[in-house]
Amino acid sequence: MDKNSKFTKSLHWTTIASEKLLLAIIGIATCIASAMYIFDMVVAQEITLPDLFMLFIYVEIIGMVGAFYSTNRIPVTLPIIIAITALCRLIVMQSKEMEALVVLGEAGAILVLSIAAFVMSLKDKISLEKIKDLRDSVSSD
Q: Which spans are transmembrane here (predicted)?
């Protein structure tokens, strides 16, 4: 084992600790931001569709942080879904002032992201099936 490999392994814990710390900060900040957003809605005594989209984005971010802590990985589809929701919110909020081509472009981006999420979900299903098949073949030996 060379010197560089030992050094890399000894620093690996910093990456893990940094990732967990930053995700915890993101989770806490998201909870605070959602509470502040809800407070603003209560003060305004109005709930609009963009408000609901924003709350949904907060829930998805909290879910993504929770998914990381339960599995130690972030499913790729969650950030894609957050991006789709953010684009939908943008269209709902600004569609009256936006040019038709811009709305079409954003709708196209939603379509591309949706296809990507679908492909990634297929990849996950195929990977899980491969793991199951591997386990079955090992247990039958």
A: 21-39, 51-69, 76-94, 100-122
